[in-house]
Amino acid sequence: MNTIVEAIxxxxxxxxxxxxxxxxxxxxxxxxxxxxxxxxCNGAMAAAKEYKKAPFMIADEIVxxxxxxxxxxxxxxxxxxxxxxxxxxxxxxxxxxxxSTAEKFGYVNKQEPKTVIVDYGGANAAKPLHVGHxxxxxxxxxxxxxQKYAGNKVIGDVHLGDWGLQMGLIIEELRxxxxxxxxxxxxxxxxxxxxxxxxxxxxxxxxxxASAKSKxxxxxxxxAHQSTLKLQSGxxxxxxxxxxxxxxxxxxxxxxxxxxxxxxxxxxxxxxxxPYIPDxxxxxxxxxxxxxxxxxxxVDIQEETDTKELPPCIVRKSDGAALYATSDLATLVExxxxxxxDSYIYLAxxxxxxxxxxVFRVAKKAGIVKENAEMTFLxxxxxxxxxxxxxKTRSGGVMRLEHLIADIGEAVYRKMMENRSLTEEEARxxxxxxxxxxxxxxxxxxxxxKDYVFDVDRFASFEGNTGPYILYTIVRIKSILxxxxxxxxxxxxxxxxxxxxxxxxxxxxxxxxxxxxxxxxYEEKAPHKICQFIYEVSNALNxxxxxxxxxxxxxxxxxxxxxALISLTKKVLEQCIDLLGIECPDRM
Length: 588
Fold this sequence. Notes:
Blueprint: H1 4-18, E1 28-30, E2 39-41, H2 43-51, H3 55-65, E3 72-78, E4 82-87, H4 89-101, E5 115-119, H5 134-149, E6 153-157, H6 165-177, H7 200-216, H8 218-232, H9 236-259, H10 270-273, H11 277-286, E7 290-293, E8 296-299, E9 313-316, H12 324-338, E10 343-349, H13 353-365, E11 374-380, E12 383-384, H14 401-419, H15 424-444, E13 452-453, H16 456-459, H17 467-486, H18 502-511, H19 514-523, H20 527-547, H21 556-579
Helix pairs in contact: 2-3, 4-18, 6-7, 6-8, 7-8, 8-9, 12-13, 14-15, 17-20, 17-21, 18-20, 19-20, 20-21
């Protein structure tokens, strides 16, 4: 199914060709003056130069040729050469009806399906998720869902930080606290216990204590370095403790990601890449790609087209240790071996742009990935408090993500209880769903690369461009449809009638943009485009609702048309919020 713009463009192409002009000039776009028209074509302006003719003369010819077209209610030439278009109600309702029966409402990804890996977790083992993890998880989940909706095979990877100094710190802090454990008895030869010697609460207290101690106690820091080295060398006792750390951490992280409605296909970490590092680095050395610089092995990434100097990528430190870049490159080696992706999408703080530039360029230079592999870094901005600084707790610490979710859920609950239309129990359950929508929509409605201010009161509002407002619109439609069927109305064989009012037409004009919006959200990996769309649709629906007596309409055919239109609106909105990782309650 053609998008609405493609359908209008096809009609104009025929007219341009029949008038003797190249059809490439028949480019149609949404009107930038909606007070004057709905769509526009400025092709006559561009064609004027080639055909040495006044643009208004070309526009006049095209409009004359299209005067009998059933697509347009009106099409007019406006000096100096604009073509202003208003669609006919018959064509628009016909398109809407086709859309309602088409798969994916007529959206088609015209590209070949790809295998895509989305790397969007980045949490560290043994540490709780905090507000800094929100954007990667929320944006990444939506990008993953959009990619899947477009027909790609998508693999989401949490990519845990599980192989650094923090492991040595935890092992040594545990040794100081529980020296009687068998892991610290060098003469112990039996099987280590299956059960972890700590809970998640203890583990989350152990790491910061160990980190603080390492800054004060040089001997403790040295012990931690030694334990890290032993772990990375395969020491049996250190490996056993590490497995406990990972089992306890993963269980807690999964619970917290589940609370965010975020899922991963892979729960791999930096540790999974370690076996690939020696051969990978040696291969770069043998090929002459990596060379020694001040004892370290580095790879140049500078290209002639760069406007600023980019430092070489260090793939092995002077002491033989690997860095994040080395680990990320080895992860690519593993991913190529196991999944052979066509495309990679990484989400991280935009301040990591240089790191990913280095990794992507080395990966291509070393032949780790194909030269034509798509490698995208989606760098996101900071979530700030009302003071414009990175969001903190009242005491100045970094807020745990579960506390943030609870806070916004509580704010939504208080707003719900002002109306008292729900029982307290129902309001609590609903507030949890709506609060999460408020949190996610508040983030996703911003362009990912930009910083934004986290404002609980604004995000939790049931008015304006917010998650609760979008959900309230869907719930409103559900309520109307339920009353319609309860009163004996049937949902079978419904079709949308030509619009009888401007608000009805406005709703149709907003809905028909779905395919174009999906195309842009997919191509640009931009969930905020979907947010813009559903806010527009919600406003149009509510304008139509306030202007129209849907359930009280005495004309049965008219009423059926209204029901068909709002039913399609509900389905489109529900599909869109699903792509954002948001759910909707039945009542609010």
